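Justification of resources, computational component.

The compute hours requested in this renewal are based largely on the per-chain cost of generating structure records like the one below. Each record pairs the submitted sequence with a full structure-token output. That output is archived, and it is also reused by downstream analysis tasks.
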Amino acid sequence: MIEFIYFVGAGALVGLAVGLTGVGGGSLMTPFLILFGFPYHVAIGTDLLYAAITKAGGMVTHARQKTIEWRIMGLLALGSIPASLLTTHFLSRVFTDSSGYQSILTHSLGIMLVLTSIVIIFRGRLKHRETPAVETHRKSSDIIVVIAGLFLGVFVTLSSVGAGAFGAAVLMLLYPYLKTIRIVGTDIAHAVPLTLIAGLGHYIVLGNVDLVLLVSLLVGSLPAIHFGTKLAKRMPSDLLQTGIALILLGLGINFIVS
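The structure output for this chain reads:
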């Protein structure tokens, strides 16, 4: 019972930070759990299912609002889903237990945290015009999106980080004619199946998910995210985002060199 309360509190802290800053839960939750002593593989596996569940509501909302570009989402998934399945299969076949691939998880987490922090810091420059522009080089953009999906499939499975901020950055760069709301909706729509499949792979194949931890994190974080979102209206969100990004950058570098 004490552990459950402790985990609920941890989820509430991360949920509050997500609500205040808008920074994705994956980039905050996984390093937070690791800093509190959870093994890398458990933190990553549990956070993947946590992300799938917490993002599902957003996906439904965007689908109802018709703010999802399903074709682009499909291109991302065309690369990411097979890549995630193959990554899980590789870990299960090559290594006998989690200790064998811990260094892969550690360095992958570091890389994705650094990339995510850079995206957060320079997000203002990545934002595109809100008015539609003439679509150019569509075919080459589509190919790059599939390749980006492959990258996300591998590294999200290995780190649980990147499906949100990094995925959105790729879409902003390749499809500048899309409105921000459609970028966000498409990114969330892709993140849900990717994190779900990657999380199920960690749970069923690798045994890396702690269900008690997962439930307690959800109990703590969901109301905290709502409260943090309300509170964010009175807080300097840009300053908070920059602070979180710098922390993630430092953690990412630490994970890479460790």
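The chain is about 80% helix and 0% strand. The CA atoms of residues 108 and 169 lie 19 Å apart.
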